[in-house]
């Protein structure tokens, strides 16, 4: 079915398909995300030591809240992009980059606010190098020690990160896809064009998101019984003062190693689902 004959995807259907693509993808990228978190928290990470101490399944610590995060956060940030893009008049491939960025930023910010509780639990489980803590126990401990507000620690950093991440990711993917189509003649449904565009999007989103990711991890991984940072700016300033400006990009390689395959698998899966269901592609 050509994209011209395909129908526009309804908002709820787009979000549901985006969630399916995201949950599928996180099973492959979670171990890289876990090592990135350990590197940001402890400054070093050894996969061999992890295997000896925690076993191979240790690489999937926090996968349960990660599924919840992808179901609520990623479903909106991916699935909400198309409808928002159309609503603000950025649907054409030649539409200004800034409008596409705004569409991605809006869907990412909304998704981050909804999925923050799952993000907090996922980050704490990933950073824990000791005995595995069940999700139910972590939930009860957080609720008892910090109340409902504990699940929204790092919300400002998370929304800021999602705004930049999804704005960069979706706008770059959309724009690069148009350029690849023009220069190669491949259609917008062609997996080759989708692959090239998602790889490019993965690199640029790593460059812009790494500092936000570092600050978010610091905020979310604070002890349950005390608050080290007062907010996003305080955490960023403390990290820069203590370790220098370049420390904000600590974990760049594992972040890129996660973002590249994540963007490729996630976006191609989402595009495939849209095609199978007879909807227009991004």
Keywords:
single chain, 282 residues, Mitochondrial carrier fold, 10 helices, globular
Structure summary:
The protein has 282 residues and is mainly α. Helices cover 72% and strands 0% of the residues.
Strand content: under 5%
Distance between the termini: 15 Å
The average pLDDT is 89
Helicity, in percent?
Answer: over 70%
Number of helices: 10
CATH superfamily: Mitochondrial carrier domain
Shape: globular
Largest sheet: none
Low-confidence stretches: none
What's the CATH class label?
Answer: Mainly Alpha
Question: How many strand elements?
Answer: 0
- CATH architecture assignment name: Alpha/alpha barrel
What pattern of helices and strands is seen along the backbone?
HHHHHHHHHH
The count of domains is 1
The name CATH uses for the topology is Mitochondrial carrier fold
Query: Structural class from helices and strands?
Result: mainly alpha
- From the alpha-carbon coordinates, what is the Rg to the nearest angstrom? 19 Å
């Amino acid at each position: 079915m050509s994209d011209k004959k395909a129908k526009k995807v309804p908002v709820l259907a787009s979000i549901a398909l985006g969630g399916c693509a995201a949950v599928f993808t996180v099973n492959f990228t979670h171990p890289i995300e876990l090592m990135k978190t350990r590197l940001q928290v402890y400054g070093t990470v050894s996969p061999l030591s992890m295997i000896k101490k925690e076993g191979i399944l240790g690489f999937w610590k926090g996968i349960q809240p990660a599924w919840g995060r992808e179901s609520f956060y990623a479903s909106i940030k991916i699935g909400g992009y198309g409808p928002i893009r159309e609503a603000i008049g950025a649907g054409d491939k030649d539409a200004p980059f800034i409008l596409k960025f705004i569409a991605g930023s809006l869907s990412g910010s909304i998704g981050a606010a909804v999925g923050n509780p799952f993000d907090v639990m996922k980050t704490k489980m990933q950073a824990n190098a000791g005995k595995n803590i069940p999700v139910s126990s972590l939930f009860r401990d957080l609720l008892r020690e910090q109340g409902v507000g504990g699940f929204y620690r790092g919300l400002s950093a998370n929304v800021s990160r999602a705004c930049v991440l999804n704005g960069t990711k979706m706008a770059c993917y959309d724009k690069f896809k148009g350029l690849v189509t023009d220069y190669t003649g491949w259609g917008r449904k062609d997996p080759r064009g989708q692959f090239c565009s998602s790889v490019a999007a993965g690199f640029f989103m790593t460059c812009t998101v790494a500092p936000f990711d570092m600050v978010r991890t610091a905020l979310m991984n604070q002890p349950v019984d005390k608050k080290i940072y007062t907010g996003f700016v305080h955490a960023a300033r403390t990290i820069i003062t203590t370790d220098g400006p370049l420390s904000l990009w600590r974990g760049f390689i594992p972040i890129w190693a996660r973002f590249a395959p994540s963007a490729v698998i996630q976006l191609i899966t989402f595009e495939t689902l849209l095609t199978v269901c007879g909807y227009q592609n991004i």
